[in-house]
Design brief:
- The structure holds two protein chains of two kinds.
- Chain A is elongated, with a radius of gyration of 19 Å.
- Chain A is mainly alpha-helical.
- Chain A has six helices and no strands.
- Chain A starts with 11 loop residues before the first helix and ends in a 13-residue tail after the last helix.
- Chain A has one domain (12-230): Phosphate transport system protein phou homolog 2, domain 2 (Methane Monooxygenase Hydroxylase, Chain G, domain 1).
- Chain B has a single domain, classed as P-loop containing nucleotide triphosphate hydrolases (Rossmann fold, 3-Layer(aba) Sandwich).
- In chain B, helix 4 (141-151) runs parallel beside helix 7.
- Chain B is globular and about 60 Å long.
- The two termini of chain B are 15 Å apart.
- Classes of the chains: A mainly alpha, B alpha/beta.
């Protein structure tokens, strides 16, 4: 049952309500994607102005989360959605939480960018930030894309990228430790890069969660905490 | 508002050829057997290949399903889908309709319900029924409940009868409300109380199965909640099949839910599954309100 036919309820208002939560969620997703991109750029370019902007926009994401959450609660109270409608509402309500957390991670990266612009840039680690940053941005983009198209297959494919991100994160971690051991004076600055890498890795985890919500939404299967090889 | 809904439904019906919209009748391919889990390992009642006709018109097509011991099975579906007809054929209520004919194997504890040896009155003592509109006898509350036990000779002395009446009324959650006016007419009670009186009357003869045909459709939410609470308690001792138009009610009270569509049993599954991830598109369309 891959088609959700959101627009085919007897009640037109119900169609609109469901469409609205989905659209607002994707709008929030777009803003969060921008935040992650800006935060990474602020870190790479030591651009504290851009970092400040990321921190500022974060509060708007929080507001959006609360708004959509309230709309979901109202919709449950008024419509008692069932089956795919119910799954859509729960998937949206879980996804916006993950998006909000991604927003938090972007804010953390922006804070690290400000530290680095004040303390002077770290000697190494930017390549890793760029690489992992690109991976998780793609994951986030793909997961939201899968949501908007109700595409469980591409959600499952996107999830698999998270393993690579985890591995890249671990190897970046080892590399940063080596630098710090070589040059203990850089520890404080290298730590900022490390925190940023950690945040990016978390963004990947949340994007993976969004993919899990998409699979639940489309197929009604809960694949959380399952062996990745048996998910497909 | 109602008119708007009617127009919308008409539009939906017109547009049934649009891809993605479940078709209403012609051309709809029904599964040969209900998909999901129509059968259980410990059936109390077992129905196989049941067809019901009103004259030439076939109202039920090849329905096969079990009702398990101490289980609540909810039957849902749009009006005219045959769920009440099916329910009524389970305790031979359709016998009273001349043009109605029932085919197939229907058994209660393995005994053929439609066998010539089966006495319909004895059967209905084992398979009780509660109807949509509360229909107490125009007698006292006491007589309403004691009528069945007296008729079936379940009590020989007045004290025994008193006990059955009290126990049944307690079970139905009505005792405290009526114990001081047992001699007053049952018809003087409120709608919700009358319905609980009818349930007390049904359980007074200790049936094994209780069939409920939209028992709450004439009741307010509080009376409905009391009946639903009662259904949950009754499952300890009884097997229940309930026809309801309220999907929330089916979701709340039943273990398994059966979806009927134009005389066909389309899907039977655990209630949880039906309301979160139904297997058949017709079930999905109905419970999400995609056609009327």
């Amino acid at each position: 049952m891959d088609k959700l036919n959101l627009d085919q309820h007897i009640s037109r208002q119900f169609n609109e309500d469901l469409e609205e939560i989905k659209t607002s969620m994707l709008e929030m997703g777009g803003l969060v994607e921008m935040q992650v991109g800006d935060a990474i750029r602020a870190l790479e370019d030591a651009d504290s102005n851009l970092a400040e902007k990321v921190i500022e926009v974060e509060s708007r994401i929080d507001e959006m989360e609360m708004d959509i959450d309230e709309t979901c609660t109202t919709l449950i109270a008024r419509r008692q959605p069932a089956a795919s409608d119910l799954r859509l509402v729960t998937a949206v309500s879980k996804t916006i939480r993950d998006l909000e957390r991604i927003g938090d991670e972007a804010q953390k990266i922006a804070k690290m960018a400000i530290h680095l612009s004040e303390e002077g840039s770290a000697p190494r680690g930017y390549t890793e930030v760029r690489h992992i940053g690109n991976c998780v941005r793609k994951m986030l983009n793909d997961s939201l894309d899968a949501f908007s198209r109700f595409d469980a297959e591409s959600a499952i494919a996107t999830m698999k990228a998270d393993r690579q991100v985890d591995m890249d994160y671990k190897s970046a971690l080892r590399e940063m430790i080596t630098y710090m051991m070589e040059d203990p004076r850089s520890i404080s600055r290298s730590m900022n890069i490390l925190w940023a890498l950690r945040s990016l890795e978390r963004v990947g985890d949340h994007a993976k969660n969004i993919c899990e919500h998409v699979v639940y939404l489309v197929q009604g299967r809960d694949i959380r905490h399952k062996n990745p090889d048996t998910r497909g | 508002m109602v008119n708007k809904l009617v127009t919308d439904t008409a539009v939906m019906l017109e547009e049934k050829k649009k891809p993605g919209v479940a078709e209403q009748s012609e051309g709809m391919v029904y599964p040969e057997q209900a998909i999901g889990m129509p059968f259980v390992t410990n059936p109390k009642m077992s129905m196989r290949n049941v067809n019901v006709f009103y004259g030439d018109k076939q109202a039920i097509h090849q329905v096969s399903v079990d009702i398990g011991q101490n289980e609540v099975v909810a039957m849902i579906g749009p009006s005219g889908c045959g769920k009440s007809t099916f329910l009524r054929s389970i305790n031979r209520m359709n016998d009273t309709i001349d043009i109605c004919r029932v085919e197939g194997d229907l058994t209660l504890d393995g005994e053929d319900i439609y066998s010539p040896k089966m006495d319909p009155v004895a059967l209905r003592a084992r398979v009780g029924m509660v109807f949509q509109k509360p229909n107490p006898f125009p007698k006292s509350i006491y007589d309403n409940v004691s009528y069945g036990p007296r008729l079936h000779g379940l009590a020989s002395r007045r004290a025994e009868l008193d006990e059955i009446v009290e126990r049944s009324l307690r079970r139905a959650g009505l005792w405290t409300e009526v114990k001081d006016r047992l001699d007053q007419p049952g018809t003087g009670l409120s709608g919700g109380q009358q319905q609980r009186l009818c349930i007390a009357r049904a359980i007074a003869i200790s049936p094994e199965v209780i069939l409920m045909d939209e028992p709450c459709s004439a009741l307010d939410p509080i009376a409905t909640a009391k009946i639903e609470e009662l259904i949950a308690e009754l499952t300890e001792n009884y097997t229940i099949a309930i026809v309801t138009h309220s999907m929330q009610q089916a979701a709340r009270v039943s273990h398994r839910t059966a979806y009927f569509h134009l005389g066909h049993l389309v899907e039977v599954n655990d209630t949880e599954k039906v309301f979160t991830a139904p297997e058949h598109e017709l079930t999905e369309a109905y419970i999400t309100g995609r056609f009327g």
